[in-house]
């Protein structure tokens, strides 16, 4: 065990006692590396879109229990040295040693340990935890520590800007340097005079929104870390700033511009060629709202906007109307989010040194301007015992080691600016957090959106932060409190008491909750007692970060505070290839709920086929909620996410990186309610994302067509299409068809001079909903054809579309269809498109396919054999349709798209081309580990 009191030894530098360290995870006389089996692997990562190799390194060494995905990501992202050179790292041992030995050396030099033996034990314990994926430092540690590069350990930065041109230009410079290093930054622009105020020269000020334009262009030019993803940044404006309405509308207006440009034929996808012409797309925007404003919203009163220099009120606006404009803009484009200023500063440990005005890009780090925070996250599932209990005492010991290491890193760390380095060394902000909460709750039989789930999450979070501050107080007795503590002692102690009181208010439901909460109570009491005497070493201890890349490094099923993304996942295999599996948490959860092995096997098999648990054989309906996920048949309601955030927020020093996903059908009033409840429930920050609200995100084909249908091209495009109507008498043909047992009729009318001009589809009983929808769909396609939309465009969009009914057809040219629309448009292509256009689309008649086989193989015997093989293949496809579907996926997100039958709102990874998935308020690629924000 690690001793929690300072005993024995003398610090060479301070003349104080150092930490006496006892073993917890390791065995004396046995190095952690000797306890595991190692194997050599080849890492070859390709871009599935064009087959090109993104990264290749062969013969790397990893433990046999590390997944292929974790191996690939660590090798490609964290190993240092030029690929192919002798200096290139090739073993996980080298990576861990590079980091851990640097930490231990700095700890020894700065008097953290009682003696050499304690330092060695600390080294072994830290090595064991990293080796066994118990926790991970944030990415900059793995990038930089122990290399010849600057020893930057922080991932989160907050900058500051004043109301003068020198400061504004310096903001551009500092932000660019941080982006270049692969990190992100946030700042508050509220000190800059509004466009409604005068300059000393007599002119009118430009206002902060105009300066945002220059910073946005800079961020779009400087790719983060020299990679292909854009920089991560946050821009905040106070709600009483006179330009607040312009700020709220910036991205919403740009989103409308994107729609206009898209409808005019420009490529406006997230990585499209023309998206760079749109402004303000590189930052997350947040409005800093006060309690005064929120009370005015509640009371439907007025609210004053104030001049920046004098503080005088220059305009009064309706608070409710302004709040509605925030919700409307967020509904349209997901920005702005809200930051609740009074709540943030009520939990501020250092108010005498300045207010908290901003956050990092992902909104989890909130502290003083010109400061930074280094992060580390624990893998919660590593502390779940076989009997389903959370091992709270072991968790405490792990937190002690990690907090100690994180604080040591500030002793040797480099920083991007002198001001950031000075503030960070004076206040020593840390950000311990966790991943795999969603998996832990499911494994223990708790629904994510349940009182029991929230109680366990709150108790674990309280224990983590309480232990962190207790260890921080002990470190203060050894190496001294943070420099800014003396000035802020009273405020810091007040916040510690607030945390402790919130811990006492946790309502427990199960033995797990009770045991964890009781230990957390003792940790808070002891921490306050020691801290009152020694002070604290760190002004901040914990945050809840997205844990994107490092989550994959630890083989976590879920990131940060998020629930399970889906019940099925995409797993890479040793030696290449991949397969669909059901999350391993699922059988563990079923076991915890009391199901027998035979029942578990049947339920897991059902989930593998359907992607959800609804109607799974033997699964009781009251247990469905345990398996609710972020997406899918039973997705967690938006308020379920908000309630979970509210449960753990009182036990986090900073805030929580999380975006509340809302369905496309959500209204502006729903967004208002989410934002209002976030304030009432005591959150520090909140952002929403409504499905399909952004043009830059990939949409399903049906939704793209809808978007075109509702646009008004005559108002937004100079060219006006002209409708070419069919004559009263026109040639036509009628086709009967069968798809997966469903019978229907297709009527196609043509222009006399050739070319399809109309279709009518009869499917379903007359007067039924299906028949009505098909009639409307047919009219829409017909009008589009008459306005000049090429048939090949419709064929490319609707062929291969998957939904029921699907399967065998009675058409010899199209034996299998993935849906009725897939069959219809491939049939239309065969009947109305020339061979060269069909060849580009990969659509051929049976005779044409036979001719191709003859050309390839040359003999009738070969053709006959090929026909037999094709029939066997068709039989396999028919019986294993779900298996064929999954083979077209390259990530869990794409796998779920196939199960759901619609595209997910997530960008494609710009490195490897796979669909990313949410991680906090960012996105992460499980193919290569790339993130869209902090990592």
UniProtKB/TrEMBL annotation:
UniProt domain Ribonucleotide reductase large subunit C-terminal: residue ranges: 154-689
Domain of life: Bacteria
One family name in Pfam for this protein: TSCPD
EC nos: 1.17.4.1
Keyword terms, alphabetized: Cobalamin, Cobalt, Disulfide bond, DNA synthesis, Nucleotide-binding, Oxidoreductase
Gene Ontology MF terms in the entry: ribonucleoside-diphosphate reductase activity, thioredoxin disulfide as acceptor
Stored InterPro entries: RdRp_reductase_class-2, RNR_2_N, RNR_lg_C, RNR_NrdJ/NrdZ, TSCPD_dom
Record-annotated Ribonucleotide reductase class II vitamin B12-dependent N-terminal domain positions: 43-133
Location of the TSCPD domain: 727-831
Cofactor list: adenosylcob(III)alamin
Reaction(s) the record says it catalyses: a 2'-deoxyribonucleoside 5'-diphosphate + [thioredoxin]-disulfide + H2O = a ribonucleoside 5'-diphosphate + [thioredoxin]-dithiol
Keyword Transmembrane helix: no
Protein family membership: Belongs to the ribonucleoside diphosphate reductase class-2 family.
Job of this protein: Catalyzes the reduction of ribonucleotides to deoxyribonucleotides. May function to provide a pool of deoxyribonucleotide precursors for DNA repair during oxygen limitation and/or for immediate growth after restoration of oxygen.
Name of the protein this chain belongs to: Vitamin B12-dependent ribonucleotide reductase
Organism: Amycolatopsis cynarae
